[in-house]
């Protein structure tokens, strides 16, 4: 099927027709005409941090349901985190995830490989075998856990240099977060919950930046959540250290005051922080100190979320609300223009994950037609049942958001049309 997208506004603000022919962007074509007046077209979004839960927790999400949620959120590629059961620490498992993603065909599912066997932080996983597998893994992460042993982290950074891989670190010094339930600060003192101090994140980022510099390798920092982390990143980048960083939509919008509800839907790792942190994160995303937005989409089954705060698993849904939250927090506030949105949600994540030959491409003829059409004027209200995820743990229930994803194209095929997933 070919498409002529009429009168869409590009990230740079110019308005023109876009032809989609034989999977590529073309000068012109016959085919279905899509009236895109008033719509924004973006390069297909790329999520470098998604939990799809398959294999192991198919009751919370599957590659199929997560892929559908991703397409509905405007994504054409997602990096599937390795903390599955079994852990994606060997070639056979990443190949299985990659193959299942291809069979579903709604987004490119790019598996992330574990850094250490079983996410235990002790012995390196089969990094080389995963890199050489059909899945072509380039991003490695023990996400959910921090690679806290500095010698292990150093060896991992050294190892992935050979194939331009990157270590994506969940920065959390485990000794500083024993029993932690929420951000350490005024609110945790008031609520009597054990705190997760900012320094537990900041100290690991500083250490890892120094290690990356020492061995000349590439570090990526997952879900940056504090103003202090932003300062450390600014320092590292000013020294020319090869470090990139992501922020989640929820850390751009929500604060630790929500813990006062004791509703576990607001429990997440790293925890929601203060309004000052939110301000610093928005500024850092605007000025490029933080390179990318990543959802950290973390579906959890009912029994893991609908319980008391301390027993609940941390994590929030994110794929279907990410772009609307970025529009609300960054575009409507004047901090980021649409070219900036394209950069932080498509071009930069594609580069970080080594997907830039296929994703995050410019919207010019000859390029693969990976596209997202958004209606920025349309506002919609989040309901858990309105989302495609199996799980229901969205923190945005009842919130009205700007920006409806109208269509998503993966290599010229519509995965979403008129706001509806195409199978
Ligand atoms: N973010 C979370 O709170 N949870 C993630 C793990 C992680 O991203 O650290 C999960 O796998 O549920
Ligand atoms: Zn994490
Ligand atoms: Zn995660």
UniProtKB/TrEMBL annotation:
Keywords: Hydrolase, Metal-binding, Pyrimidine biosynthesis, Zinc. Zn(2+) 2 binds at residues 143, 170, 223. One of its GO terms (molecular function) is allantoinase activity. One of its GO terms (biological process) is purine nucleobase catabolic process. One of its GO terms (cellular component) is cytoplasm. Zn(2+) 1 binds at residues 49, 51, 143, 296. Its cofactor is Zn(2+). The active site is at 296. Its EC number is 3.5.2.3. It catalyses: (S)-dihydroorotate + H2O = N-carbamoyl-L-aspartate + H(+). It is an enzyme of class 3 (hydrolase). Catalyzes the reversible cyclization of carbamoyl aspartate to dihydroorotate. Belongs to the metallo-dependent hydrolases superfamily. DHOase family. Class I DHOase subfamily. This is Dihydroorotase. The lineage of its organism: Bacteria, Bacillati, Actinomycetota, Actinomycetes, Cryptosporangiales. The gene is pyrC.
């Amino acid at each position: 099927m070919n498409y002529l997208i009429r009168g869409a506004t590009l990230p740079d603000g110019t308005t023109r027709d876009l032809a989609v022919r034989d999977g590529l962007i073309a000068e012109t074509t016959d085919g279905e005409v899509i009236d895109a007046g008033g719509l924004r077209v973006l390069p297909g979004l790329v999520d470098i941090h998604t939990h799809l839960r398959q294999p192991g927790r198919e009751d919370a999400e599957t590659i199929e349901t997560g892929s559908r949620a991703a397409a509905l959120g405007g994504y054409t590629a997602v990096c599937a985190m390795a903390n599955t059961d079994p852990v994606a620490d060997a070639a056979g498992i990443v190949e299985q995830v990659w193959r299942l993603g291809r069979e579903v065909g709604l987004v490119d599912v790019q598996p992330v490989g574990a850094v250490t066997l079983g996410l235990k932080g002790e012995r390196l996983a089969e990094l080389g075998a995963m890199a050489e597998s059909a899945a072509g893994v380039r991003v490695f992460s023990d996400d959910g856990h921090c690679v806290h042993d500095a010698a292990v982290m150093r060896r991992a950074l050294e190892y992935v240099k050979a194939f331009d891989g990157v270590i994506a670190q969940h920065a959390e010094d485990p000794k500083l977060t024993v029993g932690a339930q929420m951000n350490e600060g005024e609110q945790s003192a008031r609520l009597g919950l054990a705190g997760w101090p900012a320094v537990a994140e900041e100290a690991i980022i500083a250490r890892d930046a120094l290690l990356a510099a020492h061995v000349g390798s590439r570090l990526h920092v997952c879900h940056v959540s504090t103003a202090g982390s932003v300062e450390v990143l600014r320092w590292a980048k000013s020294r020319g250290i090869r470090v990139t960083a992501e922020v989640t939509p929820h850390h751009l919008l929500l604060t630790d005051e929500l813990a006062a509800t004791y509703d576990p839907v607001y429990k997440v790792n790293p925890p929601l922080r203060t309004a000052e942190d939110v301000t610093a994160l928005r500024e850092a995303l605007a000025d490029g100190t933080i390179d990318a937005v990543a959802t950290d989409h973390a579906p959890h089954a009912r029994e893991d979320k609908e319980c008391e705060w301390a027993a609940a698993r941390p994590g929030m849904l994110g794929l279907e609300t990410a772009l609307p939250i970025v529009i609300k927090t960054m575009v409507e506030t004047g901090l980021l223009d649409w070219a900036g949105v394209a950069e932080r949600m498509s071009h930069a994540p594609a580069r970080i994950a080594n997907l830039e030959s296929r994703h995050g491409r410019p919207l010019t003829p000859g390029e693969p037609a990976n596209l997202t059409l958004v209606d920025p004027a349309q506002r919609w209200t989040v309901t858990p049942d309105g989302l495609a995820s199996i799980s229901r743990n969205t923190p945005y229930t009842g919130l009205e958001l700007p920006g409806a994803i109208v269509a998503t194209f993966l290599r010229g095929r519509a995965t979403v049309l008129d706001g509806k997933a195409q199978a």
